[in-house]
Amino acid sequence: MKTSVKTCINNPVVTTGGSTAWRRGRRCDVSAFEKTRQEVAGLAGAEAEMALLSPYSRTPELSAAALLLVENEERFQSRLADAIVQREKDINVNVRLARKLPLPVENGETRPRIDLVVFIVNLVSERSLQAAENSLSYLGSDYFLGKLCFVVTDARCGAVAQERLLSVKRLAASHRCPVICAEHQTEDGVTMAAMRVLTILKVSAGLSPVATTALYLSTFTRCTVPSDFDED
């Protein structure tokens, strides 16, 4: 399959088949500072709206879905993005990458409507979990209605990873969103994670025939790989 690469407003666009992945350079789609939810709430009205990401701030495109992969350490983002783009043939999938939220205001006008936000958490890194927790403050409440999920890696790396996995699962449960465990060190594991994310993305974007989104997504709320880490 022929793949073309071009540059559009400092964002390389990778196109394969009917799918499109929007790639960002390192640190491009991230502000250089962090604010808490209280600080965002204290901003002026217009400024607060720009700081919070909303799934309904743009008109949806026909037969298209946009996905935001957020990973502080940028270890798994690109591989997952490539797998998603290569796997999907029926719809146009825009995949954007960020290290953390909020996204920069200057790119707001060209940014598509984000249908699903995925936080990738490396369980051997405390900073990775903290960055995801801090970034949640910049999501509009509508994302907590089936438009958010967590992907965790290194879930089998000892007791510390187990503790952080339980923390992620509690965080996901409090926001009513699914958790996916990814075997990121194998191609089959990356492909499986991409398929699961694509399934959730299609439901979130209204492109799936599934009747009840909330009921369907509830089947993803349990970790599917390291079952020995599940709480009683």
Describe this structure in words.
- The protein has 232 residues and is α/β, with parallel strands linked by helices.
- Helices cover 31% and strands 20% of the residues.
- The chain has 7 helices and 8 strands.
- It has helices spanning 37-41, 45-51, 77-87, 126-135, 158-174, 187-204, 213-217; strands spanning 3-8, 11-16, 19-22, 64-70, 92-98, 116-122, 148-153, 179-182.
- The strands form 2 sheets. It has a 5-stranded parallel beta sheet with strand order 5-4-6-7-8, sandwiched between helices.
- α3 crosses α6.
- The chain is globular and about 45 Å long.
- Residues 1-41, 43-49 and 222-232 have low confidence and may be disordered.
- In DSSP terms (H or I, runs of 4 or more residues), the helix count works out at 7
Instruction: Indicate the proportion of strand residues.
Output: 15-25%
Largest sheet: 5 strands, parallel
Q: In angstroms, what separates the terminal alpha carbons?
A: 47 Å
Secondary-structure element order, N to C: EEEHHEHEEHEHEHH
Question: What coarse outline follows from CA principal-axis ratios?
Answer: globular
> How much helicity do the residues have?
25-40%
Low-confidence stretches: 1-41, 43-49, 222-232
